[in-house]
Design a protein that fits this description.
heterodimer; A: about 190 residues; 2 domains; three-stranded antiparallel sheet; 9 strands; elongated; B: about 425 residues; mainly alpha; Cytochrome Bc1 Complex, Chain C; 17 helices; about 60% helix; about 0% strand; membrane (chain A)
Amino acid sequence: MAAVDNMVPPGEDAAPFHEHPHDPRRRDFINIAAVSFAGVGAIAIVLPLINQMSPSADVLAQSTTELDLSKIQPGQAIKASFRKQPLFVRNLTPAEIASANKVSLSELRDPQTLAERTKPGKQNWLITLGVCTHLGCVPLGAGEGENRGPFGGYFCPCHGSAYDTAARIRQGPAPKNLTVPEYTFTSDTTVTVG
Amino acid sequence: MSFPWAKHYQPKQPLMRWLDEKLPLPRLVYNAVGAGYPVPRNLNYFWNFGVLAGAALGIQIITGIVLAMHYAANAGVAFGSIESIMRDVNAGWFLRYAHANGASMFLLVVYIHIGRGLYYGSYKAPREMVWLLGVVIFLLMMATAFMGYVLPWGQMSFWGAQVITGFFSAIPLVGDTIRVWLLGGFAPDNAALNRFFSLHYLLPFVIAGVIVLHIWALHIPGSNNPTGVEVKGEQDTVPFHPYYTAKDAVGLGVFMLVFALLLFFSPNLLGHPDNYIEANPLSTPAHIVPEWYFLPFYAILKSFTANFILDAKLWGVLAMFGSILLLFFLPWLDSSPVRSANFRPLYRKFLGVLLLDVLVLGYVGGAEPSPGVILLGQIASIYYFAHFLIILPIVARSERPRPLPNSITEAVLEKHAGLGPTKSAMAN
């Protein structure tokens, strides 16, 4: 069918104006290829726009913390800072270790033994984030004279979550034990957290 | 787009005629909020609240742009820059209090606006799209308000950001990764503060854009009215200008009075003293509460205390978001063809109970969690969902509505039959 826009001028051969009706047509192919190319380009531009939101190099550079444990007496705890979050380091007394080991796992909401939450041979060093697993408040108990709650560990004043001497959740709305971050003992009295 | 009897824009001045040919902006205004937009003649003062919400957005944008000239979005100095706005910047205290209380006024009028829609069935066909866009605006407002509250970098700002971004960590598997991505760190810090400021500046303009769509979608069927009966003819409508521009101006005056009372006599009534303490990542305030307008949703979040298949925390987050997303389905959950609750005796009662329920949720959201309060919150949360998912569909199917008036005009004349002009005419 010759429409106005593809009419053959009088006296000329119609042959070069004919396209073979193969599928997909040459034009469709060029169209799909061009749009796909632009699409891939658009995705390539979106990636850095998404990735810029991730923690930057200077934030990640603070993601390990060195700690000196030599000054912490048994029964004492310190508050340090790890990735801008509070970190509790506690030197457990033998009595606290014994009371943590006395609890049977079936009683626990998030069953873990004290041994699983500490390093072998260093069971007295309990290192956890000071971030309540409910809504992220800082529990009490690491400072001198703070309320350690009914289970002798940590107590979150926001919604009343109580943690035991192994910082395991025992009562209240928090779903999990206080998080134990990754750490290694670099010597007998120093640890690298993160 | 409008009723056939709508007045046509006919500029008389040569300049306006010239402008109308090149850029018909005055024509657009005339047809949107001028004499060219016919509106039902029986609208009551509840129909003011759309305009009031628009005014509140305008106040927020103007005060916000000015505040941004004095504020520094850096975790090291943000708190100090707010204090300098309050103490040193000329009229800074006024601008900041206007912005902080303006947010409360905005949410207040929007809640009444939503309540109007629920009572008079404005969400029903043919206005579903108006309602859906309204819910989108509400969600954008909540995001904007939250991010704005973080900017002063006080204790409540910081811990609010901690708790609210913590919602995302409830998502299984990828939750913590998403949270770290959103914050640009492992806890709220400079990166988070900066992006919140950027988005807090952007979102109001997105809201303004969605409002344009909201009004566009509204003007296709035209405004609902207290009877819920469709417009039948010209006698049912009056032009928007001057009738409703005048009525809206009255409402705007009352709005400004309330706003001024809050702003000048009790500017910190709705705030938290803890936010005048600079953010401290190592010490949590004893009692974290969001702003008043989020309290009902916060109560729903807190109501899940036991794990059931999923973590209680995830349930809480799902329910809280669900309580708002539910509104997207409202036009299809309520199948009653009668719009106005004035003619739906049963729905009217249940809507009253829902209002009470939301107020109870608001109380629970702000209260210290004791076992009694938690139980109250759980009952109120269940009722909230039951209202939309169980009660509403059943009521819509079973209730016998009162007879509707034949037209808006008939309803108006009936209402004023006892006190028509004849009496005063006779007195003369």
